[in-house]
Amino acid sequence: xxxxxxxxxxxxxxxxxxxxxxxxxxxxxxxxxxxxxxxxxxxxxxxxxxxxxxxxxxxxxxxxxxxxxxxxxxxxxxxxxxxxxxxxxxxxxxxxxxxxxxxxxxxxxxxxxxxxxxxxxxxxxxxxxxxxxxxxxxxxxxxxxxxxxxxxxxxxxxxxxxxxxxxxxxxxxxxxxxxxxxxxxxxxxxxxxxxxxxxxxxxxxxxxxxxxxxxxxxxxxxxxxxxxxxxxxxxxxxxxxxxxxxxxxxxxxxxxxxxxxxxxxxxxxxxxxxxxxxxxxxxxxxxxxxxxxxxxxxxxxxxxxxxxxxxxxxxxxxxxxxxxxxxxxxxxxxxxxxxxxxxxxxxxxxxxxxxxxxxxxxxxxxxxx
Length: 369
Ligand SMILES: *Cc1c(COP(=O)(O)O)cnc(C)c1O
What we know:
This protein is an alpha/beta fold. The protein has helices at about 15-20, 20-35, 40-55, 65-75, 90-100, 120-125, 145-155, 205-215, 235-270, 295-305, 320-325, 335-340, 355-369, and strands at about 60, 85, 105, 130-135, 155-160, 170, 175, 180-185, 200-205, 280, 290, 345. The strands form three sheets. It has a seven-stranded mixed beta sheet, with helices on both faces. The protein has a three-stranded antiparallel beta sheet with strand order 7-6-10, with no helix packed on it. The chain has a two-stranded antiparallel sheet with strand order 11-12. Helix 7 (about 145-155) links the parallel strand 4 and strand 5 (about 155-160). Helix 2 (about 20-35) packs antiparallel against helix 9, helix 3 (about 40-55) packs parallel to helix 9 and helix 9 (about 235-270) crosses helix 13. The longest helix is centred in the C-terminal third of the chain and has 32 residues, at about 235-270. It is globular and about 70 Å long. Bound molecules: pyridoxal-5'-phosphate (PLP). Pyridoxal-5'-phosphate (PLP) binds near residues 65, 197 and 199.
């Protein structure tokens, strides 16, 4: 039986804190007593564990997931005069980081899976193209084999925007291990989170790893010598301590994301379009995105019944004012634009309860029947 008048918030981080409160308090207590708030030993330990988890040689933590992308681009000398290809249906930071580096964003339409369509990347490549940034949107990997093949034949870097996809796999490989570098966010709303901003870069390239470590810390080679001008974008020791603990829970949390997704898909597939998963994929459902008709009415109907939903993301990047004010050419990306009109994200997080998931399923089905 489904209970009436339940409240299902789109996200509720306090549930995570309550569950592990004593562990979190002990982490804070011990780091505060140590006094090593910047670059304490937890930072390096966290980097070692992140590299192991993602199956790469190096992980370098930084201040947030936008800086991680900007610093990768800077470290690869990508900037003014260069072009970088990415998808138009992502969070602002995907294009924001490219623009902040000084390079120009070139958008490329997506597939039904919401990820960049490798078949049309070729049309976007010019003499100035330096990199492709596939975004693994919703915790589902882009088609990395095809993307790497195009990049290889044109000598381009592939940088994975894996902010939404930690732990996701494509043909047995973890996201962040398939491109030249991977960019991750540890924002409170990501599958692996900390209690504020945080991010990290993954790579197998030792030269890139060394340069990134320098650039995130003022360009300092050691305490006193600066070999190039850099930035201040380090992960706080407190956040590294929290991240280290949360990383031990990540597989369990991702399994729960997948369980909830399976419940939704089983319960809803007869009435709406649900996300697909191929047998060579292992998706982590950072967002659970359905495609529906009468979306606005459904949003209101669910809200009246206590269920919060969101659209990720309501304004495509090439329609943002920050883009249109400098670009006289109006562009169109038919599939991204079509999907944008029908997509809706349902609540999904490890601490969502089964009865809440059932309540959502029940109400979506009621709306359509
Ligand atoms: C969250 C996110 C980012 C940026 O991460 P921040 O840590 O918030 O700077 C970049 N790209 C995508 C796709 C994201 O979802």
